[in-house]
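user: Please supply your own:

assistant:
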Amino acid sequence: MTSVGGEAAAPGRVVLVVDDHPVVRGGLVALMSTLDWVARTVEADGVARAVEVAETHRPDLAVVDLGLPDGDGIDLTRRLRTLAPEVRVLVLTMSSSGDSAREALAAGASGYVLKETAPEVLLGALRTVADGGLVLGPNVGGGDLLGGDATQGAAPAPFDRLSPRELQLVRLVAAGRSNAEIARRMSLADKTVRNQVSSILTRTGAADRVQLALLARDTRLVE
């Protein structure tokens, strides 16, 4: 999963779950009940009802399906973001289309994850989006939609040789995140993070994590 971290989630969040399948909604609500930062969940089975619920309950996070009986999740994302600009939206769908993911992100979604995603990965995605970060789930549209072409190639040397996913990891290292924190935020195994950091050190010529962080600041990859 590709993700970009944000601030720590405040306790007592209200989460809106929008899906026209009662079993799916029930499963998501049950999953939310295990999260200590979620105070309450509210539900809707379509676009119109979701807007009504959002106006009443002002959710902090919305989990939205793309296929809804009276519209689609992309239009709903736009409407929710207009109604409450502070709401964070995670699209949870069956569609792995890169075009759909791009449209959702352009509409204001902060994440796009497939329904086939393992529960522990989904939990990480929910937390990342609630924290103010961005998430692109595994197997979605080739995996580099968050960074985009503008990120790759626009990065200063020697970081211009890294992928958007690797640039995200560098920014987390520069922010002082440990391997364990990076693994949680990017939904990776600790060993994978260690291997990727080692690869990045070699390719950028940095001797260690401290030098990598200093290099990122010196080249203004991060402020």
